Amino acid sequence: MKTITRQKPYEEILQQLKFCNRVFVVGCGTCATVLQTGGIEQVSELREKLQGSGLLITGSTVIPTACDEMTAASVSENEAAIQGANGILVMACALGVQRLNFYLDKAVLPALDTLFIGLEEHPGYYMEACAQCGQCILGYTAGICPVTACHKGLLNGPCGGTDKGKCEVDQERDCAFTLIYNRLKEQDRLDLMRHYHPPRNAQVVPRPRVKILEQKEMEQWV
To answer: Are 158 and 177 in contact (CB under 8 A)?
Structure first.
């Protein structure tokens, strides 16, 4: 499972850096490295490009995993170079940007757009796997999520446009409910296709979402 990103247009990156002339560049050694949007090579390439645009690069690093506690250690290791910058440009997903913003009082700016959480179906091919909607029905749909697998996000069967098992919106893709039907049939659970799912409640979980562990839940990790 990877967070899928793509690099922002260079002009947009420069626009964000409009008020910064000394920049520290951060990459991520996990998802962004695999996607080739924020690994060692991409950080080096962006550094050179920014220098060519007249910006001073105080330093750079690729954090093993930019969205977790490794960020704090990396900030500490690169403290001098970070303090010498007035802008931190992050080649990581939005989680990595927000994690760095948590530790720093400087402008922390994204060099990437975060697209979706993807499951690698085969090398280099990622499909959106979960919209984190808070109303999981995978138990009824043989582990295939219609919210993400169906172009229209339908919950109770295919639309009238499906043709020979293909999606009417993108005929290169299998209809989500053909996949669900076939999987349920193999598992001898086709009766689940008759289960009605009411319209999803967009307010099921208020934003911003939070999860607070109870003390007894926290103790098991101590």
So the answer is: yes
CB 55 within 8 A of CB 90: no
Residue pair 135/162 in contact by the 8 Å Cβ criterion: no
CA distance 54 to 147: 46
Residue 78 in tokens: 């690169």
* DSSP summary character for residue 166: B
| Dist. CA 137–CA 148, nearest whole Å | 12
Tokens standing for 201? 């409640």
Segments making up each domain of the chain, as ranges: 2-115, 132-211
- Classify residue 204 by its DSSP letter: S
Separation between Cα atoms, residue 67 and residue 198, nearest integer Å: 35
User: Smallest Cα–Cα separation from 38: which of 86, 127, 110?
Assistant: 110
Q: Is 2-115 in CATH node 3.40.50.2300?
A: yes
Please count the residues of the chain: 222
User: Is the pTM here over 0.70, yes or no?
Assistant: yes
For residue 86, give both structure tokens: 């007035």
Q: Rounded to an integer, what is the distance from CA 216 to the centroid of its chain?
A: 30
pLDDT in tens, 30-53: 999 999 999 999 999 999 999 999
